[in-house]
Amino acid sequence: MYCRKCGKQIPDDSAFCQFCGTILEYTPELVSNNTSDTVPISEERGEVKSADVKNYIHDVIKRIKKIPDIALIAAAIAVVLAIVLLVLNKNVFTPSKFYNNGVTAMEAGDYESAIEAFSAYDFKDSQEQIKECKYIIANDAYEECSYSEAIDLFRELGSYKDSEDLLNICIADYEEDSYNKAVDLYRSGSYASASSIFEELGNYKNTSKYLTLIKGRTNPTQATIDSVIKILGFEDASDVLFQSYSTAAEFLEGTWSGSGWYFHFMKKDNGAVCDWSFPGVPSAVWDIKDGYFITGNTRRCKLEAISSSIIVVSSLGESKTVTMNKTS
Q1: What domain range includes position 160?
Q2: Is the pLDDT of residue 50 over 70?
């Protein structure tokens, strides 16, 4: 026979469908041989006994009640399995996949991608692998003279391997490299850029002296020029002093003489007066600019301040050099 609900074939003596659980209505065709799974018919009148029907229904109900328990157990097992799979996926399968991706990227030399993969989950020794990747990147950056990047990474790594020693080496090389760049910038006239680097270097080597020279060129107040005079003999301090008469006026005030030659400078309210005796320097309108004594718009002598009381005057036309001392 077939179930009237799901249509599947079931034994002829079934009280309910073993596939969908539908209770089958009683029909005489269901009754046969008075078995325990069928309702007996009275032999005398061919009728179903009421007591047997009650027993039959009770038996059917007992069988039906077993179905939800089985379904519930199956559902519970399915839920447990789903949870187990979820936990395994979250804590084992997925972290393992990211970890393996990190190892692969690391072996390929793609350390940035490796760090990203290892950082996804705290799995196995992923933290140590991250440090190793950063250590390699830091060493590569140092070899490429990317000192700032190397310093940041070695500082982050702390005591990992020899990071602390390498950090000190990087800092020393970075300071020397930055210092040389700043000096080159200063000598090329890029004073703002040079000043920025020197200020970052702090007290490294002669940074303070270069900053004094930069201030003397960009903001030549008497205070800054006085500071320049204190470092005469360093770099082009003399040129900074003699960049114009206005910057050198206080310094030159008085008489300078040597080898029978002299220069005499005297300030006045409306300017300054200068007289001299020096070969190859004719009398004319004079000025001081960019380290030179000029008459008639022509450079005549190169002026170099050795100290606050000594200058060297070199004639451009006569090839004569005289050291002069301040006598008054």
Answers
A1: 125-197
A2: no
| CA–CA–CA angle 165, 166, 167 (5° rounding) | 90
Closest CA to 289 of 247, 246, 242: 242
The closest alpha carbon to 98, from 84, 128, 119, 127, belongs to 119
In a domain, 252, yes or no: yes
pLDDT tens per residue, range 128-184: 999 999 999 999 999 999 999 999 999 999 999 999 999 999 999 999 999 999 999
DSSP-derived secondary structure letter, 161: T
Q: Assess whether pLDDT exceeds 90 at residue 52.
A: no
Q: What is the CATH number of the domain that holds 259?
A: 2.40.128
Task: Quote the Cα angle for 303-206-149, to 5°.
Answer: 135
Map tokens 């030659």 to a residue. 261
Which residues pair with residue 271 across a beta bridge? Answer: 268
Same domain, 167 and 240: no
* DSSP letters spanning 252-308: H-EEEEETTEEEEEEEETTEEEEEEE-TT--SS-EEEETTEEEETTEEEEEEEEEET
Helix, strand and coil content of the chain, in percent to the nearest 5, comes to 50, 15, 30
> C-alpha distances in angstroms, 181 versus 28, 184, 272, 273?
110, 5, 40, 42
DSSP 55-119: HHHHHHHHHHHHHHHHHHHHHHHHHHHHHHHHHHIIIIIHHHHHHHHHHHHHHTT-HHHHHHHHH
Q: What angle do CA 131, 137, 138 make, to 5 degrees?
A: 85
